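Protein 1 of 2
SEQ + STRUCT:
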Amino acid sequence: MIDKTETAAALQVAGTTPALSRSARIAVPELVMAWGRGWAVSRGVPDPVAIAGGFRADVGLRGHRVRYVLHTWDADLLEPIARQAAAPGTWIKTAGRASDLRRALPAHWAMDNSGYLMTTRFTAGTDDPPSPYETRITTDGDVVVAAVLDDSGEVAASGRLAPAGSCGVIDQVETAPAHRRRGLGTTVMRMLSDHAVRNGLGTGILVATEDGRSLYGVLGWAVQCEIAVAYIREA
């Protein structure tokens, strides 16, 4: 069981520092809640609803109907959520180790790959993409979409930035398979960072995959905690 009063020790990721980086100065629970608000804006889903230890988001997609995200939890807090939210397509994400989440859940919950909550201090400035690529910034409501286009005008790489108070949440950074390993993901990230600074957003937040964690680390993003993931399959 993870005691609710534990912070750094409960959230430590092997190989990283348990303390927040100097770029963030925001506690993990606040970062998780800000990420949830920004993620909802980026994905166009209803605002998350605060619950004990985190939030619930009604995603509404087949296979991903609802998600619970907990920044602070123990088995006593998790048990009623796992029991009451046992419908197919339900996801639970927790700040902390996947092994702890696995032990706390009934066997019918499946584990998914962990993510990593990461932060940075946004900085201004962009790099020109390699020839023949061009860049484009558009908006989708409150969301900024950065894209790198190939010479036929097709999107080769893109990413989204959504506001969450003074923070900016980076989401859905993707590079098409044919255009990978050309630095286009870095170009997208720097475009979004520059736009964030120009619009008064100081701290960047994202949840990275294992592969993304390496890319973002090179760009100055720091891991704050592991995000363990479990779900109930929907046929």
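Protein 2 of 2
SEQ + STRUCT:
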Amino acid sequence: MDGNGRWARQRLLPRVAGHRAGMETLRRVVGWSIERGVRVLTVFAFSSENWSRPADEVSAILRLMVQALMDEVPRLDEAGVRLHVPGSRDGLPASLVDGIAQAEARTAGNDRLVLNVCFNYGGRWDIVQAAQALAARGEPITEASLAGALALAHVPDPDLVIRTGGEQRISNFLLWQIAYSELYFSDRLWPAFDAAEFDRALAAYAQRQRRFGRTPEQVQAAAARAA
């Protein structure tokens, strides 16, 4: 969800205003996802590297997350959304840690949409913590066991990754999980991301042929057999 700060700067607003506007966009995207039959939505809200931002901005983001949990969780629960917050709890305020735990518990029985809000998350951190957990349990480290120990082991690997803000890089997001994901880069700043752009991303994905190492002919033959 890239571009909050630039969106605010263009309007001569403080950066936190961009983060607030970004929360509104996320609320809309959750609704669009439900309407379009998306079953899993994973967003990158705060990365392991974001701690290096100015202290006042980090503090504002933490407060905004606490407030968002209070305001949004009842709506998510009513809409049938199950919330997960993958990421490290190290360094987070106790109020935020408690709020996350309560939100995850409250929505645990919902199955209309799984919403993963990655907070204090990094793809490298995820791989390392998974390997450490396996080593601590004395379990062999294989592709399957490592995948099962990742912070997003509860959902399939993503089919589509959308990055807003005009940047074309991964920025330490889901490094293991997006090995075969399709990528869509949007020039829209996140607060300006709208339903039309969301649909363009989905339409672009629908035109892709996902081969997973196979030839196009093999994919076509498999599709014909399945039909």
